[in-house]
Design goal:
By secondary structure, the protein is an alpha/beta fold. It has 15 helices and 20 strands. 27% of the residues lie in helices and 18% in strands. Strand 19 and strand 20 form a beta hairpin.
Amino acid sequence: MSKDKLGISRRDFLKGAAVGTAGIAVSGLLGACSLGETTKTTDQTTSGQLPWLGDEPKISDRKVEKGISVDVIVIGAGIAGVAAARSAGEEGAKVAIFEKGSGPQCRSGEYALINGDLQAKWGRANMDPDEIVDFHMSESCYHVKRPIMSRWSKEFPGVFDWFIEAKPDLYIAQTTRSEIPDQYKDAFLIPIFHPLPENYNYKEEKFPCYPTSVEFLPSQAPVVNANMDKAIKESSVTPFYGHFVEKLIMENGRCTGIYARNAETGKYVKAIAKKGVILSTGDYSSNEEILKYYTPEVIENKITRLWFNQDVEGNFTNTGDGLKLGAWAGARIQQHHAPMIHHMGGGAGADGAGVMGIAGFLQLDANGKRFMNEDLPGQQLENQIELLKGQYSYQMWDAKWKDEIQYMPAAHGCPCYYDETAPKNNETYRNYKNQAQLDKAVKEKRCFKANTVEELIAMLEIDKDSALKSIERYNALCKQGKDEDFNKPSKRLFGLEQAPFYAVKMSTAAMLICMGGLESDEECHTFDEDRNVIPGLYAAGNIQGNRYSVEYPISLKGVSHATALFYGYVAGKNAVNQI
């Protein structure tokens, strides 16, 4: 069964990002992927047809090699799908889960978890869910549904406990940098930013990063696989790996089943669902037609799309299958999709983390001009870089960095701890920096280093005279303790004064996924164009819309995984009980 397991660690996942746009296998190079030979696209929109949709496949029962009848069908075995299958199975339902890969799908391993018994063990169970959801609504420009995020924020701790109980030997670390015993090095859970830096108070930040997040290391694959195994062994759940769901069966406005192509035989399984069908098909970043329609700026800015998971036919798995299946069934698609393009810093190494992350040091553009308040989260930083000449900037700092990063925010991709230790089996966490890492980056020419500011500027693709004037101006602002140009907080005003001096080049970052799905609600319903519930059709994971909008909110590290897991669990129970 090992060949049916898929798990990509964050290190392996981010390693691809470090290679750069020219060298990685990215989905943008492959163009759009179709659901099958029977699908075709059209550019005609006058009839109201979506230009990327094409015609729904017509599948004859003569091509059916097998017919099955179950209570619940789950389409997609990612985090949401696995949770849905196990949840439905534990309700006593007979479940079939269809996945076009060779087994369960996952990557990385961060989750946002507000309060609960697990967080209480770390002394972090005193968060205000409503305050956090309020900020999420603001970040999403109020294009999302508050009940979806509110329910998740308050009920998720119990579901997360349910999720990790499937792997009872999972090791729970006491701190972010705890040493991990050898027997647990392949599956452990850490609290992120614990303990918090003594100089950080999220309540005082314009862009707070809430201390709610945890991470499975080196990958969440062992836990996801354990949940799938538990569902199969302890409930009536049957997986169909290597099967491509190409058509929903609709009868009198209700979803009653699916047709799934068996990649091995080319024939179809016709599956009837007595109670419900759950779409958990992921995002659509590898489908250029859909991406161009909903987020054309990603194409216009030539953003690299980073994805590794492949189906059994060797194609990327995030091809928008769920959007097509839903649209053919008459489901309404949310507006204002949210590309996940959060910067992790320039000069990334094998772990994908930038040399100095997104720390709010001085940044200059190609014209040698300062262009922003550098104290920004990675998503907002990316937005600013996309507006620049050449779409690149230089981040600069000096020898005082060891003290200065301890005043940076405890935020996604931002170094805020200086630590020369190397905890056993747990030494790579991204927010911890040391001199050895910096020296290695310089040696590998991922980072510039010089003994004078003039020598440093001479190494860069930048207007030299203008850059020197900008640095002189910035140093003066730092000395007076007031940023009159961009209003950066005084506690993060650090001048370039003490040799050696460093710089890294920051270009546009890679997009991980694009958040945009079928309109949904806190019960995982889908809706038709008139916003009436489509009976029998549920959505969870990245195909569930109305969770994120405009951009991915990195105030909650791992919230995408968290809502996928939670609403997979909800969808499974609701489908069985036909809620």
